[in-house]
Specification:
The protein is an alpha+beta fold. The chain has helices at residues 2-16, 51-62, 74-96, 103-115, 117-123, 129-136, 141-154, 196-215, 220-238, 271-274, 290-302, 305-320, 326-341, 349-373, 376-399, 405-416, 440-457, 504-521, 542-560, 576-596, 610-621, 628-637, 643-648, 655-661; strands at 23-25, 31-33, 71-73, 160-166, 174-180, 256-257, 285-287, 419-423, 478-480, 485-489, 563-565, 568-569, 624-626. The strands form five sheets. Strands 4-5-7-6 form a four-stranded mixed beta sheet. The protein has a three-stranded mixed beta sheet with strand order 8-10-9, with helices on one face. It has a two-stranded antiparallel sheet with strand order 1-2.
Length: 680
């Protein structure tokens, strides 16, 4: 079956990557193509009017979103290919068997337990009997708080969530952070959305809650009452949640309590929660949203235990639904994927199994993935791209006319301290203490238990500055403020983002802009709050900070004006960090590309100049489309703008784009010089 699946994916990707005809000769003598996916172009649209449509319109017209997806595009297609590669790794591990306790054996056991549909369906709701018994035994606030901790170890959503990461003020040491959590809807905005769509989602959520309670054996009347009480409880929690726009202000996250978590809101014995984590008496925690903890203390006192028990059963089923019988999976999918995202059909089980193995023991899979799918030459080429981007950033910072010398010096110090992690980590996680068996749900709990224990074990240790927070087989990239690092997993270093077989213009426009984007996060509205050592520190003068905020405000205003659906616009405040990253990424990558030419003219390939191919490469990387439901959801929860506006919102601010495509007043992509925003 996997060979057929792999063939279908490669065939699909082949259509996606239908490319160019012209070639040139690279520095090493190799023949390089233009890298333009000619079949994807919509030449009926002028690039000066809608660049996203010009570059991607042909693909959009001929590709419907698959039934098992809420969105489709560059990232999704490459993720499919990565999943197929991981499936081959899994099947090879299963065929070999592997020695007892070996990574191959763990891979095979986890995948086999997920694919045992008959056993899982036969168990049904009984798979949760042990958990349900523990919830039914909650007869005091002490047991309630103890269950919150047990939920953390098990992977069940509860009102509290812990995470261990470098301390914001002492980045050389780890700190335990406590976060708000506990909602069944994506964020607190959903609980106050009185629009027609908002009310429809709440009604569908109530229906889903009722279905869960009836699956648990509640009568219809009891299910209705449990639904009402759980909704009231979630409303209470949501009322104290900090909204996502305000959560970008990282100084608000650093609120120390302790040692021994002293000074948390009185009236609650917090030892009942923290004792389960076996922390040392000297442990000082940081509460990311202290106003939420104060609100939770009120909700704890005002909500009867019976309502808490009903609520926790709902969270239990929702958290474990992907690992339960088909009936329970379908119920959760209908609400969370179909209602919220518009996805009509579940992904095939093998793909969900791959996701589970990646989630549980991603580094075991990643070691094999890198060995089979990432070359040293690709890493060397990426290292050079990063080095060129750093040079371009330095030149740009040195010439900024809005920044004073003191802030400029600090920005350059931070730039010099950037770390670039390319392809894979130096050190892999060791899962040898993970206890696995043939039953799926115990394996899920064990994977979550291992992850929490691994985090807590870091607390007394110095920070590993090269630690990765993403699997290498993930198609993505990220910047870490507390490590001051940019990180590019092996899986993203493939077409259409990076291709050693194409002319450099496309690579600079695609992966180069992404490199610049991630570096730019070090200088966006949130990353700029940290210095080069990852310390939360205001290294800006007051006047420079005001100038930065004024430019950012103009960018926010631009994006607030982009309408994705009638009456639905981009949230410029929520997306400001990513928009700054896109603007900086393209601006700096373009400078780096020009720098890489060394004064020589770029060849014209497939009728496009080097400068034009650069911008085409950027737009190709962000090819994508979403279902309406998914688009509405992402506007509320995602810090990224929709793909179209990542392209059409960014390029009108770039002078080089006007020169490359001769954009003139009257063209739809034209923005007056005084209306263009430049930051970095």
């Amino acid at each position: 079956m996997s060979r057929a699946v792999l063939f279908l994916l490669v065939a699909c990707a082949g259509h996606f990557l239908a490319a160019c005809a012209d070639t040139t000769v690279g520095d090493n003598g190799a023949r390089l193509s233009s890298g333009i996916y000619l079949d994807n172009l919509d030449t009926n649209v002028r690039p000066q009017d809608d660049f996203f449509q010009f570059v991607n319109g042909g693909w959009l017209a001929s590709n419907n979103i698959p039934d098992d997806k809420s969105s489709d595009g560059s990232f999704e297609r490459l993720s499919e290919a990565a999943d197929a590669d991981v499936l081959s790794i899994i099947e090879e591990a299963a065929a070999q068997g592997g020695a007892s306790g070996s990574p191959e054996q763990r891979i095979a056991i986890l995948y086999r337990s997920f694919m045992a549909e008959e056993r899982i369906n036969a168990l049904g709701i009984q798979a949760l009997d042990e958990d349900l018994s523990i919830i039914d035994a909650i007869d005091s606030e002490r047991r309630l708080l103890e269950f919150f901790a047990l939920a953390e170890y098990s992977g069940v959503t509860s009102p509290l969530e812990i995470y261990v990461m470098p301390d914001f003020l002492e980045p050389e040491r780890y700190r335990l952070y406590l976060f708000q959590s506990g909602l069944g809807l994506p964020n607190s905005d959903y609980y106050t959305d009185d629009s027609e769509q908002g009310r429809a989602i709440v009604a569908a959520y109530h229906s889903y809650m009722r279905d869960v309670y009836m699956a648990l054996g509640y009568s219809r009347d009891a299910a209705d009452k449990a639904t009402s009480s759980s909704w009231a409880l979630e409303l209470g929690l949501a009322a104290h949640h900090r909204p996502p726009e305000k959560d970008r202000n990282y100084p608000l996250w650093h609120n120390l309590y302790g040692p021994g978590h002293k000074n948390l809101p009185s009236g609650v014995n917090w030892d009942d929660y923290f004792s389960s984590f076996e922390l040392s008496p000297e442990t000082v925690i940081s509460v990311a949203q202290p106003e939420y903890i104060e609100g939770l203390a009120l909700v704890l006192k005002s909500t009867p235990l019976s309502a808490w028990r009903d609520y926790l059963k709902l969270r239990l089923v929702s958290s474990f639904a992907p690992y339960l019988s088909q009936e329970l999976q379908d119920s959760a999918f209908d609400f969370y994927s179909t209602t919220l995202e518009g996805t009509p059909q579940m992904k095939p089980r093998w793909r969900r199994g791959v996701s589970f193995v990646n989630y549980a023991i991603g580094d075991s899979v990643g070691q094999i993935y890198v060995r089979e799918h990432f070359s040293p030459s690709a890493k060397a080429q990426m290292d050079q791209l990063v080095a060129n981007l750093i040079v371009a950033y330095r030149e740009s910072i040195e010439s900024l006319d809005w920044m004073g010398e003191q802030t400029r010096a600090n920005a350059l110090i931070k730039l010099d301290k950037f770390t670039a992690n390319i392809g894979y980590p130096d050190k892999w996680k060791d899962y040898s203490t993970m206890r696995l068996g043939e039953a799926l749900l115990p394996n899920v709990r064990e994977a979550n238990r291992w992850e929490v224990a691994d985090q807590l074990a870091r607390l007394p240790k110095p920070v590993d500055r090269h630690e990765w927070n993403m699997n290498v087989q993930t198609v993505n990239a990220y910047y870490s403020s507390v490590q001051n690092s940019i990180n590019f997993p092996a899986a993203i270093l493939q077409p259409p983002f990076f291709d050693p077989q194409v002319d450099e213009a496309i690579n600079y426009g695609a992966i180069g802009s992404i490199i610049g984007h991630e570096i730019g996060h070090g200088f966006d509205d949130s990353g700029a709050q940290f210095d080069g050592d990852g310390r939360l520190y205001n290294w800006w003068t007051e006047s420079d900070q005001a100038a930065f905020k004024a430019r950012t405000a103009r960018l926010i205003e631009q994006y607030n004006g982009f309408e994705i659906l009638p009456g639905v616009t981009v949230n410029g405040t929520l997306t400001q960090g990513e928009n700054i990253g896109d603007l900086a990424g393209v601006s700096i990558a373009y400078k780096a590309y020009i720098y890489s030419l060394g004064g020589k003219p770029a060849p014209v390939l497939d009728g496009y100049t080097g400068a034009q191919r650069f911008f085409i490469g950027f737009a190709q990387a962000f090819l994508g489309q979403s279902r309406e439901e998914r688009a509405r959801q992402m506007i509320k929860i995602d810090e990224h703008s929709p793909e179209k506006f990542r392209v059409n919102g960014t390029l009108p601010n770039i002078d080089g784009f006007y020169e490359a495509f001769k954009v003139q007043p009257g063209d739809l992509m034209y923005r007056g010089v005084d209306q263009r925003v430049t930051i970095w």
